[in-house]
């Protein structure tokens, strides 16, 4: 398999394997996660030689080539840097998580979520198509939601997950629109074309809205002002999640996007002002807020916000050297921030708290962890001989280029940010000094050896890059920057000493100012007693977010109160009135209908429609007090509809309609049992008030007008000569290209197989949703009692269960008959399934037939008896159906064809001769399994209401209803 595809698929495969492991297992899912990550990392590192030579690795898979939407994977130097960063830090975090996570947690699910997120992030990095990039972008939002809310029992975790998901998905929608506009401007959605069309993009009238939309997507993802508030609340996640998401992945996705699209979008005043304003505000606000946090993870969260603002500010400057500095600081930040988060997790794990007001003197109990955390904090503060110092000095140098010698505001902001960084770094390491706290939840001690190992590796990298930067990361940085800047890579020097210059003086000022500022805060401003951030506490983005959601909820409630209704009759009235009024208002003049010639009217067909109309009117008339009669009449209308399709030479449609009508009748019949009884009031007054007559007249007039309008539209379509359509295309190609003579079936499972795949997926989701709702449904107390029609002291069936009635009671003969009928109906289902590719039938019809055969057993013998004889497991039918259908499409991919491409095999079998086996047959088998599973799941879930009620006697209440029984 090609290497880039394997890089993305490996984490997802590992996630599936981990998810199938026992919930309480730790070693096995950790081993699977570590193994797939290590393999992917080795593959990525092995490609460095080709990438460093300037080669761009590409893999293309045809999907919708006519629309320019092929699946494209692309790895250049920048993608390689981020890939290794994601996999390398991910591997260390997974090793760390093995020791951090408790056995009481569902650890297998945790590793599955982590690997799925890793795969989504790799998809963002390696995407060579903008639409594909957005798909993986949104997948990172979904998987991060699962990770942040992993501890579902905690309210702060659920709140943080919702907040992060809402903000980032809103940005993702903006990004989607911006990407669509960008692809339209460039003439293609492929990344190579977009990056080469920079001049065309910048000169286009749509440049500004495109830039704003793309920037909104990036800024929300990277927690930039004013969207920074979600990141601190995401700290409710387990510490390994924070170490991974907020150092190398989640928040770096926005930075990656800005670097990736820098050749196409940068170089304008709009780019500088939008990103520069957001970046400067973010780096100042984040660093200032970090000083006054009492939670160690909260401090790191705001420091992450600040450093991300630093990177965005560098990108806004727009010079080639600022891009080099941005890539360099992205790498450095990932190294020291991941080590710091894991160090905090060790402290929390071994002491039971992260509150800096309680922690002190930890250097005595945890000397190795303290040394590692102090070095990483010094790197974060920009202390010389560590990696953070080098990239921050490059940042200081680049800020001097903004505004020339007249405007030093950005340089002042950079120094202020440096001062605040030193201050919060000093506060972070203060927990390691002083006398050891005695009132900690746990006695502090060093962690297990391998839990500390990932921190040691990252701290060694901090020192190595700081001491010998050129040898440690020089070539890697050049490869990453060259992928963005092309051959115009600027001259830069990663030496430790550049002499006494202004950037060095700015670094010294930041270090000295930060030390002084922290001493003043400690002496005159008790940080431990501060409940809120001074001066800037009103900039509470989280509160603004909550107020916005509350306002939306109140507005929606007001709208529903004034414009909505729970009465179905009024809702139908508005829909029918709109259906009548809109065409009359928009279509001018109304088209004349072709004349109706009585000689063309078949009397038998007209009689058939009269019967259907009478059934429909009778069902409407009887619906209020005689539901069973109304159901029978509605079924008659459905049968007439099926016969109409058959009359018009549409046997596939007639079969499908007939089976759907059967299943729907059974569904409504099961539901009628649990509706409150309605009888004609005995004292109904013979005189009807005039208002009721007016209301009925209004409803009747609108109903008649709507029916006549639909009838006229149908007549006009059927009596007008059809224009040229694409029907001939399918008729001519069904047999030679689809391998079947039944055009309808070939159309569904071959030509439009992707549509059918989506439809069965939606059908599965609907069935699972109905099942989940019915599990919580409890029949009304007044509907639990035995119906009045069955209440008899003489009838022996009253005291019998449905199973007894079917085995020894009055239903014994029908039950025996239907049990013998079950295998015959199964054979009929197989018959219609096997013939579907060449004759009327197929997986959908066969699935409905087989599901009906099962449901009939429930109706006669009852739920208990059937499920004691058969273990149906509808959920597994649905799962295997989707797996089979997807596997058919993926099989085409494995052979280099577009997804769901159909092929026909010609097999020579003894006695049978040559047999044609199209791959669409397997896809249709998946459709069959899904239809059987979804139909059984919905109908059986409704039938299970009888188990919840147990036919309670009159006067039963909800308290007498037993818990729900799971569907086998």
Q: Which helices and strands, and how do they pair?
A:
Elements (H helix, E strand, L loop, with lengths): L2 H17 L7 H20 L1 H5 L4 E8 L4 E7 L1 H24 L6 H20 L3 H19 L6 H32 L4 H6 L1 H6 L3 H15 L8 H4 L5 H7 L4 H11 L1 H4 L3 H23 L4 H22 L2 H32 L10 H4 L1 H15 L5 H13 L9 H21 L19 H19 L1 H17 L16 H23 L16 H23 L4 H19 L16 H20 L4 H21 L3 H22 L17 H30 L7 H12 L4 H9 L1 H24 L25 H6 L4 H24 L7 H19 L1 H7 L4 H21 L9 E6 L3 E6 H25 L1 H5 L19
Antiparallel strand pairs: 1-2, 3-4
Helix pairs in contact: 1-2, 1-5, 2-4, 2-5, 4-5, 4-12, 4-17, 4-22, 4-23, 5-6, 6-7, 7-10, 10-13, 10-15, 12-17, 13-16, 15-16, 15-21, 16-17, 16-21, 17-19, 17-20, 17-22, 17-23, 19-21, 19-22, 20-22, 20-24, 21-24, 22-23, 26-30, 27-28, 28-29, 29-36, 29-39, 31-32, 32-33, 33-38, 33-39, 35-36, ...
Describe, in plain words, how this protein is organized in 3D.
Helix content is 69%, strand content 3%. It contains 40 helices and four strands. A hairpin with a 4-residue loop joins strand 1 (57-64) and strand 2. The chain is elongated and about 105 Å long.
Mean pLDDT across the residues is 86
Percent helix range: 55-70%
Main sheet overview: 2 strands, antiparallel
Unreliable parts: 950-968
**Proportion of residues in extended strands:** under 5%
**Quaternary:** single chain
Alpha-beta classification? mainly alpha
What is the count of β-strands?
4
Distance between the termini: 39 Å
* Helix count from the secondary structure assignment: 40
Q: Gyration radius, to the nearest Å?
A: 34 Å
Order of strands, widest sheet = 1-2
Rough outline? elongated
């Amino acid at each position: 398999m090609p290497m880039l595809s394997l890089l993305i698929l490996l984490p997802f495969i590992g996630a599936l394997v981990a998810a199938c492991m026992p919930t309480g297992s730790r070693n096995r899912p950790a081993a699977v996660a570590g193994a797939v990550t290590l393999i992917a990392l080795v593959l990525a590192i092995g490609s460095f030689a080709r990438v460093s030579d300037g080669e761009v690795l590409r893999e293309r898979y045809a999907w919708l080539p006519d629309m320019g939407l092929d699946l494209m994977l692309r790895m250049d130097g920048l993608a390689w840097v981020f890939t290794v960063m994601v996999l390398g830090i991910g591997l260390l975090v997974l090793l760390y998580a093995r020791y951090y996570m408790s056995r009481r947690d569902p650890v297998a699910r945790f590793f599955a979520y982590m690997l799925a997120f890793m795969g989504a992030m790799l998809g963002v990095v390696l995407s060579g198509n903008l639409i594909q990039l957005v798909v993986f972008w949104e997948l990172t939002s979904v998987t991060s939601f699962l990770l942040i809310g992993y501890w579902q029992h905690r309210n702060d975790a659920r709140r943080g997950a919702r907040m992060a998901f809402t903000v980032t998905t809103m940005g993702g929608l903006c990004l989607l629109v911006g990407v669509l506009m960008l692809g339209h401007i460039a003439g293609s959605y492929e990344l190579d074309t977009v990056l080469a069309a920079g001049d065309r993009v910048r000169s286009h009238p749509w440049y500004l809205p495109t830039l704003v939309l793309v920037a909104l997507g990036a800024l929300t993802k990277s927690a930039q002002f004013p969207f920074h508030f979600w990141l601190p609340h995401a700290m409710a996640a387990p510490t390994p999640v924070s170490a991974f998401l907020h150092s190398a992945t989640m928040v770096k996705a926005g930075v990656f996007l800005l670097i990736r699209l820098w050749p196409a979008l940068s170089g304008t005043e709009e780019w500088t002002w939008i990103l520069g304003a957001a970046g400067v505000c973010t780096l100042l606000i984040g660093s200032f807020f970090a000083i006054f946090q009492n939670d160690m993870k909260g401090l790191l969260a705001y420091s992450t916000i600040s450093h991300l603002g630093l990177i965005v500010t560098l990108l806004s400057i727009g010079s080639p050297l600022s891009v080099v500095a941005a890539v360099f600081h992205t790498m450095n930040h990932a190294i020291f921030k991941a080590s710091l988060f894991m160090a905090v997790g060790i402290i929390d794990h071994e002491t039971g708290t992260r509150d800096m007001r309680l922690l002190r003197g930890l250097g005595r109990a945890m000397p190795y962890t303290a040394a590692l955390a102090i070095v990483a904090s010094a790197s974060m503060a920009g202390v010389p001989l560590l990696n953070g110092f080098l990239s921050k000095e490059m940042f200081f140098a680049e800020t001097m280029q903004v505004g020339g010698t007249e405007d030093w505001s950005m340089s002042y902001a950079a120094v202020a940010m440096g001062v605040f960084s030193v201050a919060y770094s000093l506060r972070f390491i203060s927990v390691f000094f002083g006398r050891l706290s005695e009132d900690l939840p746990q006695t502090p001690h060093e962690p297990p050896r391998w839990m500390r190992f990932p921190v040691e590796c990252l701290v060694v990298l901090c020192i190595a890059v700081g001491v010998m930067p050129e040898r440690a990361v020089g070539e890697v940085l050049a490869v990453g920057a060259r992928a963005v800047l092309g051959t115009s890579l600027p001259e830069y020097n990663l030496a430790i000493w550049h002499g006494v210059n202004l950037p060095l003086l700015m670094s010294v000022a930041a270090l000295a100012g930060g030390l002084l500022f922290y001493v003043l805060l400690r002496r005159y401003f008790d940080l431990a007693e501060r409940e809120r951030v001074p001066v800037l506490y009103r900039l509470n983005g989280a509160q603004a977010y909550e107020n916005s959601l509350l306002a939306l909820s109140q507005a929606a409630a007001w709208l529903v109160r004034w414009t909505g209704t729970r009465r179905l009759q009024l809702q139908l009235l508005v829909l029918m009135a709109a259906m009548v009024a809109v065409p009359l208002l928009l279509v001018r003049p109304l088209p004349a209908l072709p004349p109706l010639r009585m000689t063309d009217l078949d009397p038998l067909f007209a009689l058939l429609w009269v019967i259907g109309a009478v059934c429909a009117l009778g069902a409407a008339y009887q619906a209020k007090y005689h539901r069973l009669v109304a159901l029978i009449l509605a079924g008659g209308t459905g049968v007439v509809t099926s016969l109409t399709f058959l009359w018009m030479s549409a046997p596939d449609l007639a079969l499908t309609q007939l089976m759907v009508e059967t299943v729907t009748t059974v569904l409504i019949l099961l539901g009628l049992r649990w509706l409150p009884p309605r009888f004609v009031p005995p004292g109904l007054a013979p005189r009807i008030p005039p208002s009721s007559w007016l209301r009925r007249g209004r409803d009747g007039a609108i109903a008649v007008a709507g029916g006549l309008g639909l009838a006229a539209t149908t007549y006009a379509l059927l009596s007008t000569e059809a224009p040229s359509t694409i029907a001939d295309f399918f008729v001519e190609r069904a047999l030679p290209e689809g391998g079947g003579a039944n055009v309808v079936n070939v159309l569904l499972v071959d030509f439009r197989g992707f549509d059918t795949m989506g439809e069965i997926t939606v059908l599965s989701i609907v069935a699972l949703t109905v099942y989940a709702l019915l599990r919580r449904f409890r029949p009304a107390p007044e509907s639990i009692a035995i119906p009045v029609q069955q209440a008899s002291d003489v009838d022996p069936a009253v005291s019998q269960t449905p199973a007894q009635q079917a085995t020894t009671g009055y239903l014994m003969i029908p039950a025996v008959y239907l049990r013998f009928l079950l295998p015959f109906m199964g054979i009929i289902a197989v018959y219609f399934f096997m013939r579907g590719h060449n004759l009327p039938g197929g997986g959908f019809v066969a699935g409905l037939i087989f599901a009906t055969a099962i449901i009939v057993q429930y109706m006669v013998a009852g739920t208990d008896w059937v499920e004691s004889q058969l273990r149906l497991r509808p959920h597994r039918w649905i799962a295997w159906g989707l797996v089979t259908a997807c596997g058919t499409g993926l099989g085409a991919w494995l052979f280099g064809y577009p997804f769901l491409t159909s092929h026909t095999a010609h097999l020579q079998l003894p006695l049978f001769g040559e047999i044609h086996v199209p791959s669409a047959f397997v896809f249709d088998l998946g459709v069959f399994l899904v239809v059987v599973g979804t139909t059984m799941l919905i109908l059986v879930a409704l039938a299970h209401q009888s188990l919840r009620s147990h036919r309670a006697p009159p006067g039963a209440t909800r308290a007498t209803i037993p818990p729900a029984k799971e569907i086998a």
